[in-house]
Design brief:
55% of the residues lie in helices and 8% in strands. By secondary structure, it is an alpha/beta fold.
Length: 473
């Protein structure tokens, strides 16, 4: 490689024009042939980018402006005839770009072969490197411009035009082409609201004002609060949803999404690994999740109202916090719990495994111990890392690359239901012993009191599934 770079710098130095070198070393005909190959390669990459842009627009059912045409009445722009015409023009433009790609590829191969016969092997390799580098630089600029244009239009450049590669339908429902198209956008796609909620909108501005009231010294409240009020009213009453709404979504698409959501026979979710959309029969989904919850050693159904138990758990946590407050715990107000609710259990299908088992996921946001658990995370983090742990797959690759063994093979082991099989009491004791090795007090608490705090944060995990209360034993 270094030898080739050295030779190319000698054959084509940067201080001399490449056109003069080719004309002097060969002839004018060779120079014109080289320029035609350079121009054809550049056009080929440009047409491929244009074809990519048109395919993304087609996938989003969006017609670019240069394909649309003006008509004498504005109301006809929404007519089925006009829409079918511009859709047909878009398909014709895509077909034309495909023909151009084939034409330029054939021409490039022919010019490439002829250039090989006109120049030496070394000069040919040097000239091709020059063409590829120049074309790549221009292609990078065009690609960035096209990405910015797609972003302004609200279109994602990674949109997959083949819905079957995104959607995994294991349900008995047959999806129409329109339903497939709208689901292929993915579950991360968010629809802008067509109408702002008065209460939710102004609530955020009220919270800002309450937070600013505690600031003194550098804030002129007499000017600040009226300015916030003026801006909030201006933004609310000047809200125009048609300027925010994505060209992908139409009113008919909203109706399709509502119908899918109202279908009680299916469950739409994301897969356990990667991105995508999975459809399952609700009965099959329920049976698999209830099978997991049927393990009496880990879960137990509550025979009474779960919300009464939530209140008792809140009182238990707050009583423990008040007791520790008298012993020097200074974060009582930060972790005080009130107005909480049970967790929510759901399952993500493992579509890469036989039988499509479910991975149970417990959303603990808003549960009684959520605030306390979140508060303890940075304190417990040192106990989760040592010389045998890796942070991510990239660190694992770097670690494996440094190993040198002659006759070995790699294997991996997976623990079934890891979190529900962890012995909680033993784990709490291990954590406390580890943290108090080098210090006598944490959060101004001794070892025994910190263990109490850890206990109320990990006990009594109440959650809902299908309106039945369960708690983790």
């Amino acid at each position: 490689m270094f030898v080739f770079l050295f030779i190319s710098k000698i054959r084509f130095p940067k201080n001399k024009s490449i056109a003069d070198i080719i004309r002097k070393r060969y002839n004018e005909h060779t120079l014109r042939h080289f320029r035609r190959l350079e121009s054809t390669t550049r056009r080929l990459h440009k047409v491929k980018l244009d074809l990519r842009f048109l395919n993304i627009c087609k996938g989003y059912r969006f017609v670019p402006k240069f394909i649309k045409f003006r008509i004498y009445r504005k109301d006809l722009y929404h007519s089925p005839l006009y829409k079918s015409c511009i859709d047909k023009f878009l398909n014709l433009e895509i077909h034309f770009k495909h023909k151009l790609v084939s034409k330029y590829e054939s021409s490039e191969r022919q010019l490439n072969t002829e250039l090989q016969n006109l120049v030496s092997f070394i000069d040919y390799r040097c000239l091709m490197c020059f063409i590829n580098k120049k074309t790549s630089d221009q292609n990078t600029i065009n690609f960035r411009r096209q990405g910015q244009k797609l972003e302004r239009l609200g279109l994602h450049s990674s949109f997959e035009t083949n819905p079957d590669s995104v959607i995994s339908n294991f349900s008995s429902r047959q999806l129409s082409s329109s339903e497939k198209r709208i689901l292929a956008v993915g579950l991360d796609f968010k629809i802008h609201p067509r109408k702002l909620s008065f209460c939710n909108y102004f609530l955020y501005f009220e919270k800002i004002c309450h937070q600013l009231e505690s600031m003194t010294g550098f804030l002129d409240k007499a000017k600040c609060f009226p300015t916030i009020k003026t801006l909030s009213n201006k933004l609310f009453y000047n809200f125009k949803p048609h300027k925010l709404f994505s060209p992908l979504i139409s009113t008919k698409d909203i109706i399709l999404l509502k119908r899918l959501r109202q279908d009680e026979n299916i469950v739409i979710c994301r897969p356990d690994k990667g991105n995508g959309v999975v459809l399952l029969d609700r009965d099959n989904y329920r049976v698999k999740l209830l099978f997991i919850l049927g393990d009496g050693t880990k879960f137990k159904e509550l025979p009474f109202d779960a919300f009464n138990l939530i209140i008792k758990i809140e009182d238990k946590i707050n009583y423990c916090l008040r007791t520790l407050k008298t012993k020097g715990f200074e974060f009582y107000n930060e972790v005080y719990t009130s107005g909480t609710h049970p967790g929510l259990l759901y399952g993500l299908p493992k579509i890469h495994k036989m039988g499509i088992p479910l991975r149970p996921i417990l959303s603990a946001i808003g549960t009684p111990a959520y605030g306390l658990s979140k508060f303890l995370v940075p304190i417990l983090k040192p106990a989760t890392t040592n010389q045998y742990t890796l942070s991510d797959s990239f660190e694992f690759v770097d670690f494996v690359a440094e190993l040198q063994f002659d006759s070995c093979f790699m294997t991996s082991f997976d623990v079934e239901s890891l979190f529900t099989n962890i012995p909680i009491n033993e784990t709490r004791q291990i954590i406390v012993n580890f943290l108090f090795q080098s210090q006598d007090r944490i959060l101004n608490l001794n070892k025994r009191d910190f263990l109490k705090l850890l206990k109320v944060a990990t006990d009594d995990s109440v959650f809902f599934y299908s309106m039945n209360g369960f708690f983790n034993k």
